[in-house]
Amino acid sequence: MGDFIQMQNIVKRFPSVTACNHITIIGFAKGEIHALLGENGAGKSTLMNILYGLLKKDEEEILMDGQSIEINSPQEAIELGIGMVHQHFMLIPKFTVIENIILGTKLKREPFLDFKVARKEIEALQKTQV
Ligand SMILES: Nc1ncnc2c1ncn2[C@@H]1O[C@H](COP(=O)(O)OP(=O)(O)OP(=O)(O)O)[C@@H](O)[C@H]1O
Ligand SMILES: [Mg+2]
Description:
The protein is α+β, with helices and mostly antiparallel strands. Helix content is 25%, strand content 24%.
């Protein structure tokens, strides 16, 4: 199994700090589980937020299956098969549980939200054995 995702020379500067200073990860293979270790403020969340398209790059190259890819939004990351469980919850307080769960997912009956179908799918997922 080859390296499915590689991150090369990732740099992210905030005004007061360089959060990621030329970080290279070679690489993540499909089905592997990795732990990213570092002290508070080391840049772990920043690095993952870049992979998930939440933060814009300063300098970087992300490779998927050996090809250079651009990830400009979480939507694009999801389409590439990259998901994210956030360290800090990113829920919209005014939304219901179902509205928060389906936020950003593809609508089956655009432009309408089908809450009945969403509820059924969520209930089916709850019964899925991991
Ligand atoms: N949006 C932002 N604007 C400015 N600085 C930021 C921003 N996000 C993170 N930082 C800074 O970048 C550095 C890395 O932060 P990051 O949250 O990536 O670290 P972390 O390794 O995930 O830390 P923790 O273990 O606390 O979760 C920190 O100095 C942080 O204050
Ligand atoms: Mg973090």
